[in-house]
């Protein structure tokens, strides 16, 4: 049955853009249907993670233990027919534990010894870096090349990763003793930064009922990796009106204290604003959001809908903001109130 589902959703390259966008919207609904078999609530987080997949980006998820972060990501991996590997990041984890290492092996027939590369867990489609802030910077940095270049270099040799490739990292906001906060340069590599919170009581009741029963829901495969990469190309080909691009760039630029025209609250509360990647991911995320909703065009609301996830980890507030209880999300809210959208009403 799973094989039939993949065959039905496989998209030929000759398909028109309009038909492809319709297929993407239908595919999204099928994925949501499968994920909902095991995940209760967290609608916005699920929507944002799916958007990340279709945009081809990486995602950082922050939440306390026990909120089904791992289950969500593994379930999406099964629905997308992608290989999934989970690595628990610990203080003693070394870079070779992520990327792989070369070992000396002897050929039993010839007796010759040669170095052979043993791939690490990064050689997968979806890598879940669990509690990434619990490992030292040296090991955190081992992911940089993989995230940006989709390759790893070991002993001077470069090895390409299998496509599609996604890194989804989690952080625990409590128990900060002995942790290594991600540097801004690495946080900037993540397209989205998401916050997962406790469920409302009625949804928590549904979780308890489902997890303490004997029935176990099986997540069926909806699309395969090749189809997903085709969909990613459709997302990138989606046109965006220049006024909307200017709006996204202005939203990002106004977050920088040194930028001419930056609002006074930015100068008062922000140490560093969003990088150029902020503008890039605002548009790419808006494209993915539009296509997933079955639209061949991007609106201002699409940009605004991804603004918090894109800019949350790219705006660094100062001590004054912390002392007054103002976080990056409040800064983003004020920015969207300050920066006027295009008058065209797109």
Mean pLDDT: 84
Number of domains: 2
Low-pLDDT segments: 1-12
Order of helices and strands: HHHEHEHEEEHEEEHEHHHHEHHEHH
**Can you say what the CATH homologous superfamily of the largest domain is?**
P-loop containing nucleotide triphosphate hydrolases
Summed up, the helix count is: 15
**What is the beta-strand fraction?**
5-15%
Can you give a write-up of this model?
The chain has helices at residues 2-9, 17-35, 43-55, 69-79, 96-99, 137-149, 184-187, 201-211, 225-237, 242-253, 264-269, 276-292, 300-311, 319-323, 328-338; strands at 59-62, 84-88, 100-106, 113-119, 126-130, 151-154, 157-160, 166-171, 192-195, 270-272, 316-317. The protein is α/β, with parallel strands linked by helices and 346 residues long. Mean pLDDT is 84; it is low at 1-12. Strand 6 (151-154) and strand 7 (157-160) form a beta hairpin. The chain folds into 2 domains: 1-212 and 222-236, P-loop containing nucleotide triphosphate hydrolases (Rossmann fold); 238-346, Magnesium chelatase subunit I, C-Terminal domain (Helicase, Ruva Protein, domain 3, Orthogonal Bundle), CATH 1.10.8.80. The protein has 15 helices and 11 strands.
